[in-house]
């Protein structure tokens, strides 16, 4: 383990967004049939420890839209690589990154967790990516801005960092129309209820986006609200760009910090650069983009589509991520991973099953999740914790996405669960599967779903 290194270019700060495009020129892109399914892939790449293997797997999957978690930039544990940038360049994709944490280089860290850079979530695609946002969560069960001496959580103390959990969100302009995509990584050093509280923020955002569509339906065509311009300054100047880096698209402005349930969790939030879009409620949606595919998608046979906001228009969305639904097996025995009363109160259930039945099973137009109220979550959270129309094509009990080899003994697995999710809204599922069965490229399986937008 070496000492910290100076990064080759300025690193983003928590809540800052990066947006780049490594696709071929429009004229060089292959044509797309209008009825071809859209291939979605969800994967936690485990910090890119095995970056070459990750790239090879993703190249073989050939997905249209990727949601990736645990993206490292300039961390010693992942070979000082910019892992997301390397994937996007190798695959020739557009790439949006939301920074969650500054990973401090510290003697408290082991070699396989050593920092020195930043860490976050990403959305990659063959299509245009716009309206990239960092969605703030109101609940932060771990205050990552505390010093190691002040940090009460013993495992968090060994990985000092600054920042907070954030979800990447963006509009991906597919050949079938716009798709709202989330790439989420919820907190692991807490209980199931805190993770549900964080998920409620994403449900709330989806509901607000749908309401925006309905509001636009009341406006005449000529009065359609225009999307505010993005911030025009990239996060670093041309002279500071990594070698061979193509011209970046202008990233969206970082979101303003949200009031957390525990004020100390945002004691030192990074400053947000002012811009036309950084105003009002931090979860208030920007006006949605047009439904027609971008003009630079050659050969696309465009079917007739209603304009965004037309009566009957449905927000199509894919909420993908590592939701860390791990409260089962030996994890249940650890107060570090299961910190609330559901540690024992959900005996006999996988946490994924609990989420499937008690959260996803409570759907609009229910006004509130009464089960969550009985568990002690705040009323506002319980009102948001109502499923706004998402469906899960996978099985919450049998579709295991993590099987930690450290906790295997004599053919038995003691730390397994479905931690990774692809939740779909306004989509028809044509096929779904999982891979990385031997966990050779990451400690998580990847999930692939082929869909058509409704």
UniProtKB/TrEMBL annotation:
GO MF: catalytic activity
Q: Return one Gene Ontology term, BP aspect.
A: GPI anchor biosynthetic process
UniProt lineage: Eukaryota, Viridiplantae, Chlorophyta, core chlorophytes, Chlorophyceae
Q: Pro residues: which segments have biased composition?
A: 285-306
Looking at the record, which segments are called Disordered? 143-164, 211-309
Instruction: Give the protein name, as stated in the record.
Output: Endonuclease/exonuclease/phosphatase domain-containing protein
Which Pfam family, giving just one, matches this sequence? Exo_endo_phos
Give every Endonuclease/exonuclease/phosphatase domain span. Answer: 41-444
List compositional bias (Low complexity) regions by residue number: 248-267
Record InterPro entries: Endo/exonu/phosph_ase_sf, Endo/exonuclease/phosphatase, GPI-anchor_lipid_remodeler
Superkingdom of this protein's organism: Eukaryota
Task: List GO terms (cellular component aspect).
Answer: membrane
